[in-house]
Amino acid sequence: MPRDLDQGRIVIVGASLAGLRAAETLREEGFTGSLTVVGDEPHPPYDRPPLSKQVLLGKAAADATALPARRGLDADWRLGVAATGLDAAGKRVLLADGESLPYDRLLIATGTRARPWPDPAQAALDGVLTLRTADDAARLAERLAAGPRRVLVIGGGFTGSEIASACRERGIEVTVAERGPAPLVGALGGTLAKLAAGLQRAHGVDLRCGVTVTALRGNGRFTGADLSDGDRVDADVCVVAMGAVRNTEWLADSGLAAGRLGVACDAGCRVFDAYGIVTDDVFVAGDVARFPHPLFEYQMLALEHWGNAVAQAGVAAHNMVSPGPLRRPHLAVPVFWSSQFGVNVKSVGVPSFSDQVVIAQGSLGERRLVAVYGYRGRVTAAVTVNMAKWLEHYQGLIETAAPFPPGPGAADGHPLVTEFPVPSNVPDPRGLLHGPTVALTGHLPDRRLTLVRPGG
């Protein structure tokens, strides 16, 4: 590697939000060397949150969600070509078109893709769709604009719930099939999941919880689905919203610590190799990254959040062109949001890293509240429903490991709405269809582990 970190060759694999923000930061920090950005989609970087909101409602076109660049990048963009392998020893990225790109430093920002329906023949039925890319959103928006008699959504996570919300706003009948006990339960736990279920049903969603879809039916065109309870749903469109798959397959023979849960790295975004030794020339950022966080007992977090992609990309880029003493850790507190069924849900921290929850402000009945989550006596997360102005206050409690439950009047001078905390009822993610937006690699905090010793 060149002695001067401002020179040399940097390759970024992943031309989405994290890749773009990392490229901008590299130039802003004075990197003047060769910069190449590789993306498997033909489109320049675009914003994904509007796809399940404005685009599905017909308020914006899918091709109008391009991310604005903060500055000229002077980069070589390789769009529409996927990375197929990595020669870490030879420092080369292998591309699907047969070319290989040499690098001095590499940033992996390949993100995730929608988990497909497991039966390829059923997934190929006309009318069976997923939602992850701009092309996906354009196809689904076209179907919704045609006025189907019913849409089936498989999975009640944030994406599935936002799709259902868009359908109801368009006046389309929609059925949501969720394997767990309620929508959003994997992200928010059982207490707020009950609110989410009531919200969906109040808006006319045919919500089926505790069931799975066993088969998609149709003769070339999707006509309906069979459920595990013996029922059948007739519909014209099916949206498979069963979570995401992290794009790590191209790294299978790289010798890096990459797999189903993502690419493991240290707090400075430096990737570990398969033996747990940190590299100094390969970095990772965004949805595909797994990183330790001291606020959550150094468990490895994998976050599918817009804000995390931006913050982590900035840290990774800074560290790629900074000598050791000037490098900094990625310690941002996770924040995410969702708009659905007329309410705005915002979260800070990791609600699934909890064993108890208390309603600190507002009211479940009024659908305007702040739920505060705790683990082992300290605040680990807060979720607001139409009360986002309080989020900063609770973020401060999380960052300072404040005691849980928060004291009476901690925010607005009034006592806690619920006098005693209740279990947060975070389910085992293996029992869900959609998967969590936050994945922790360790055991769930409210589960006890038993160590079985041979002969004991």
Automatic annotation (TrEMBL):
Transmembrane segments: none
A Pfam family: Pyr_redox_2
The keyword Amino-acid biosynthesis appears for this protein: no
UniProt entry keywords in alphabetical sequence: FAD, Flavoprotein, Oxidoreductase
Sequence ranges assigned to domain FAD/NAD(P)-binding in this UniProt record: 9-313
GO molecular function: oxidoreductase activity, acting on NAD(P)H
Domain (Reductase C-terminal) ranges: 336-406
Cellular component GO terms, alphabetical: cytoplasm
Names of the cofactor(s): FAD
Protein name per UniProt: NADPH-dependent 2,4-dienoyl-CoA reductase/sulfur reductase-like enzyme
